[in-house]
Structure formats: C-alpha cells, structure tokens
Amino acid sequence: MTLLSVSDLTIEAGPPGDRLRLVDGVSLSVKAGETVALVGESGSGKSLTALSILGLLGEGLTPTAGRILFDGRDLATLAPEELRRLRGADLAMIFQEPVSSLNPLVTVGDQVAESLIVHGRASGAEARERAVEMLKRVGIPEPARRARQLPTELSGGMCQRVMIAAALISRPRLLIADEPTTALDVTIQAQILDLLAELGAEAGTAILLITHDMGVVAETADRVCVMYGGRVVEEAAAVPLFAAPRHPYTGMLLRTIPRLDQPPKRALYSIAGNVPSPRDWPEGCRFRTRCTRADAACTALPPLDAAGEGDRRAACFHPLEGPQ
Amino acid sequence: MSAAAPARRSFRAADLLSWWPAWLLFALVLCALFAPWLAPMDPDRQNLLARLKAPGFEARGAVYHLGSDELGRDVLSRLIYGARISLSVAVLSVLLSGVVGVTVGMAAGYLRGWTETVLMRLVDIFLSIPAILLAIITVAVLGPGFVNVILVLALTRWPRYARVAYGQTLAIAERPFVRLSRAMGASPARVIAVHILPNIVGPLLVVATLEFGLMVLFEAGLSFLGLGVQPPTASWGSMLSTGRNYLATAWWIATFPGLALFLLVLSANMIGDRLSDRIGKG
C-alpha cells in the first residue's frame, strides 16, 4: 500500500517573476513499512523535497506544482492546523545536526515527550514516564537520569538517539530522516542506522532516508531514488541498483565508494566538476556537462522512464548496461 | 548563549562589594516596602512652625534628619515614601511595556509576512516620535495620576522591547531546534512560548534593566512638570520641582531626592551593563 506519493513536485525560490527552480518535477513514493533512500549530492534538492512534505519549507520557498498524497490525503488541501496535527503524530522528521536540533534550555526528557504533549496524547507524569521508556529503547544508559539533563550534557551520538526517540515516541507511519548520520563518527553511524531500522520495523514505520552516502544506502534501503539537479534521475530497488546502475550518474556515485579489494595508493575516484547551481542548469539532461556518454540527444530533457524495465527507471537516453 | 553552568567561583568579600548597585537597589526596595515602619514621620503631616529647617533640626522631640520642606514636612520621610512611587511606577511600566513589546516583537519575528510588516512599521512610527514628548502630550490629554503615568510610559516604551524581541526571534527561529519542534507538530504559540522565549530572555532582561532606570527618570520628569503623581503624595520628581524654588535658601529639599534619583538610575544602569556583558548586547 502506498503511504506517501509525491508527484511532479516543483519548488521555486524567490519573488514571483524572478523565480529560481530548485526542485523540478520530482516524483517518488514510499510504501507502508518500507525504507526508501533519497540520494544525491548537496544542492540536488533532496532536503527541500523532504521539508515540503511536512509543509516546513522556509521563507521564500514555494511549491509551485505537484501533489503530495499522504495516506491518500492531498497535503496541499489541508488547513495549516490539520497539517500540524499530522506532523509529529503520523509524520515525523529528524534532522542532520543532532546537537543544535535540540533546544538547549529544555530537558532531554521533555523534548522526547514533546509530540505526546503537543498532540494531547499524554501529559505530565505519564508523558515523562513514556519519554524515559523511549530513551531506554534507543539505547541510552541511565535513561531516567539522562531525561533530566540538558542536551549540552550529551554527546552528538546521544543527541541523535534522543531525536530518534522524540520522533518515534508517537509511532509515526512515516519517518523522514534527513542525513541522520552525517554529523556523527563512523562507529556511531552504523549504530544509529541499525537503531532506525530496528525501531522502524518494530513500529511498522516507513522511512524516507535522505543521504549523500552510498554506504548508508547499501546498509538500509529497500528502494533508492537518486536525485541530481532537482530531478530524480534513477529509481530502483536497492539490490539491482547496486548490482547494475543504469544512469551514468548513479554509476559514478557507486564508484566513489572507496573499496578495500582494490590495490592501495590508487587515487580515489571522484566525479569531475561540480554540481551546477540551479541558475546554471544546462538545457536538457542536467548531468550532461559532467557525463562521459553525453551527445547531441541529451540536449532534450530525458523523462524518468527513458530507460529501465519493470519497476526500475532511469532518466537517460544512453543508459549503462550490465554490472559496472 | 551557552546553557552550560559557569564554573563556580568561591565568593569573596570583593565580589559582594563589586555588586554594590544590586545591594543599593535592594536597599531601596526594602525602603519602599517597609516605608511605614522606616519613615520617622508621616510624610504628609505639615508643621508650619518648622518650615524650611536644615537637616538635624529638632522640634517637639522629633528630629528632621534631612531637614524639612516649605510646608514643614520631613524630607527623609517623604524620600522614603517617594521610593514607593519611583519603584512601583518603574517596575509596573517596565512590566507592561515589556509584555506588550515582547509579544508584538515575537509575533512579528516568528509569523513574518503581513503581521511582520504591519507590526514593525508601527514600531518604527512609535520610535520616530520623541518618547518624553509623546508622554507629556498623552498625560496632558489623559490627565495626570499614578495609573495614567504607567500607561503612558508603557505606551511610549514598548517599541524598544519589540525591536529587541523581533531581532532575537528572527535569529532563534532559524535554529534547527525550532524546526524540529515544528516538525513535532508544535503550534506557533507553543514554539514561541516554550522554544523561543526562554532563549531570548537574556537580552530582554538587559533592555528591561536599562529601561528601568529610564522609567525612574521619566516618572521624575513628569512629576517635575506636574504631570505625574499629584500632591500631596511624595514623589522624588515633585520634591525636586518644589525644592528648586528654595535652592538658595534650603538646598536639602531638592538635593536629597536628586541624589536618590541619581543613585537609583546609576545602579540600574550599572546592573544593566553587567548583565549585557554577561549575556550579550540587548
């Protein structure tokens, strides 16, 4: 069953008349209980896509086209108050910077209990009790004592656990995790990912995981959407995508993962050039200026189903064939 | 601003002394609270036989420690009772203008859009009018009196708080924890009250302390002009005003309330400076 379906989402910045398109016709879907990874470099529009699902785009950013259906309801038609009641209850989000995402003046326990209190699901002592229980579930030692501390007394990894506890305490149906491990040590990263997967599965929570780290994707995702230049360029189940990427950009992303089975001292692979800024997006395929396979045909914009079969799709006229 | 507890230092006598402005303010508050017990005489009782007597004058067993005024009232007693007026007007007007200003500023800073434009232009308009002039005009229209003075001072001073609250709210609203609380479904009112307000209290406190000194002066100024608290109620400003006429013959009538005003405003400002050094500029 499709829980979240985003279709043709377009997000623009700036005043009318001088609009800059940052997200350009993104479509993706998340089924109940599934983990979908949204992958891309900085500036590809993945975080904006996520924020717009919650209706939390910042000042000056407007979704100008597209539809977001959550559980069959069009989020754009909901009153702000209805959307607010969805947030934190059915639809939760965690963010990149675990330490600064917690209010420095509110105790950890109160912040974990926030969504219970906000939505009137529990109050006072009961909310606090459930917060302590949740802190214990995310693996924080001495949860009762920690609950009374301020976030500044906790490490970054602990703060991320606290944020996960806060997001999952209401057992949401969808959790959007925006780069949840980027700010953490590698050793902590794996723990946090395992925790997310475990608690998500337990509560039947679907996860939309936003990341630029292909290693993280490989560990957790059922399905992957690769974004480049404000568009989805490839969508596939994780295993076939890693085995045989179709879009050249995906292929290059996979080659950037350092490997231990290659001779040492070999230069690490990097994709030549930078992600063009939205003002400099080329006509047609956004990736063609960095792509080795580009030709004259690529000056036309390839649709997402230009290549691919079954439930996998790639927006490329010259897709890669076979394992890379 | 860090929430980490500052390293504890051992308290020394020098530290306590260096906080003399706070002690002085505390002493004045005690004076105001316990005026009926502290004042040696009834501040309004006239004794026309003991007019304009110098400090230390004794009449019928009562000592006029700071002299007597033109109606033979004890200057010390009037000074002590006057502290009640100065402090209560200042405290109440700071509270009232603070509540109004902070509400306006935070609403503008958090809600943005039209709310922001309308509220902040209103603030600009108020700030462009000289405060004391606005106060004088409004009192002249509303009529003098204790309550009116407080209302007028709040009316003229709330934009200061609105400005600071607005700027601070803009800065805090960008912080990731505000975004997280919104993602948790917190209502605008809750985000403002629970997540933003506690984080901007510091700078607001600095403004309030500095404003407190200003309010004392404004009240004295209005009373000096006869627009404040009305006679016979003792107010430092009105004491200054009448004392001015006798400066050549009875210097004590104007000098002691002047000195009291000076010390109160000085200590309020020094406390404000201290706070702003610790907390950051308001």
Give an overview of the whole structure:
The complex is a heterodimer of chains A (324) and B (282). The radius of gyration of chain A is 20 Å and the shape is globular. In chain A, the strands form 2 sheets. Chain A has a 7-stranded mixed sheet with strand order 6-7-8-3-9-10-11, sandwiched between helices. Chain A has a 4-stranded antiparallel sheet with strand order 2-1-4-5, with helices on one face. With 324 residues, chain A is an alpha/beta fold. Chain A has helices spanning 46-54, 80-86, 108-118, 124-137, 143-147, 156-168, 186-203, 214-220, 238-243, 248-255, and strands at residues 2-13, 20-31, 35-39, 61-70, 73-74, 91-94, 174-178, 206-211, 223-228, 231-237, 313-314. With 282 residues, chain B is an all-alpha fold. Chain B has one domain (69-74, 83-281): Orthogonal Bundle (MetI-like fold). Chain B has helices at 13-18, 20-33, 35-38, 75-111, 113-128, 131-142, 146-173, 176-183, 188-224, 236-245, 252-279, and strands at 57-59, 62-64. In chain B, strands 1-2 form a two-stranded antiparallel ribbon. Residues 1-5 of chain B have low confidence and may be disordered. Classes of the chains: A alpha/beta (324), B mainly alpha (282). Chains A and B meet through α2, β6, α3 and α6 of A and α8 and α9 of B.
